[in-house]
Amino acid sequence: MVRRGSLTFILVFILAFLMTACGSTAKGEVELGFNPYQGAAMLEVPATFKSEMDISLKSIKESRYEAYKTGDEINKVKSYYADSFKKNGWEDKTSEMTAKSQGITALPGSFAMLFQKGNEAAAILAFSGEQAKGMGFDGVGAGDTFFLVLKGKR
Q1: Three-state DSSP string of the chain
Q2: Which residues of 78-114 are buried (b: 16+ CB within 10 A; e: fewer)?
Q3: Orientation of helix 4-22 relative to helix 47-56, angle to 10°
Q4: Inter-residue contact 8 to 52 (CB < 8 Å)
Q5: Measured distance CA(51)–CA(102) in Å, rounded
Q6: Distance from C-alpha of 103 to C-alpha of 79, rounded to nearest angstrom
Q7: Count of alpha carbons within 13 Å of 20, Cβ hemisphere only?
Q8: Which residues contact 85 (CB under 8 A, 6 or more apart)?
Q9: Cβ–Cβ < 8 Å for 13, 102
Q10: How many structural domains comprise the chain?
Q11: To the nearest whole number, what is the mean pLDDT of the chain?
């Protein structure tokens, strides 16, 4: 199993790279033009993870991120966001991610997607609840799907 610190470092690096490639956290502030995944529960972001994220995303204008969990299969979450972004005029930029930024997908049962609309960029990163627990998120079961929703401007 990957150690907590190393998994957090890898995730923060990937998130910062994703958002910088396209271009302050508060609950409920990630506005994408459509509803969050139905039935997902918003999670409190652990202080250590939050401070790492805030430092990594400092150069991204108006950056926002939220963490969620659901008991649904990861592919259902992925399908929902892929369809919702497309229906709301976001361009899928996932294929433009470099091999380094696709590292999140090397984790079993995970995915990363990147979208752009004008000067706004959004990313969805999802993986198992077990991996989220390893990063310090409470209230996530090993069988849950954990995902982060990020948005910023370049």
Answers
A1: CCCHHHHHHHHHHHHHHHHHHHCCCCCCCCCCCCCCCCCCEEECCCHHHHHHHHHHCCCCEEEEEEEEEECCCHHHHHHHHHHHHHHCCCEECHHHCCCCHHHHHHCCCCEEEEEEECCEEEEEEEEEHHHHHHCCCCCCCCCCEEEEEEEEEC
A2: bebbbebbeeeebeebbeebeeebbbbbebeebbbbb
A3: 30
A4: yes
A5: 23
A6: 20
A7: 14
A8: 32, 92, 113, 115, 122
A9: no
A10: 1
A11: 77
Structure tokens at 56: 């990594």
Name residue 123's beta-bridge partners. Answer: 114, 150
pLDDT at 58 over 60: yes
Tens of pLDDT, residue by residue over 8-52, are 444 544 554 444 444 333 344 467 778 889 999 999 888 887 777
Write out pLDDT tens, residues 97-115.
Answer: 655 555 556 677 888 888 9
* Other Cβ atoms closer than 10 A to 23: 15
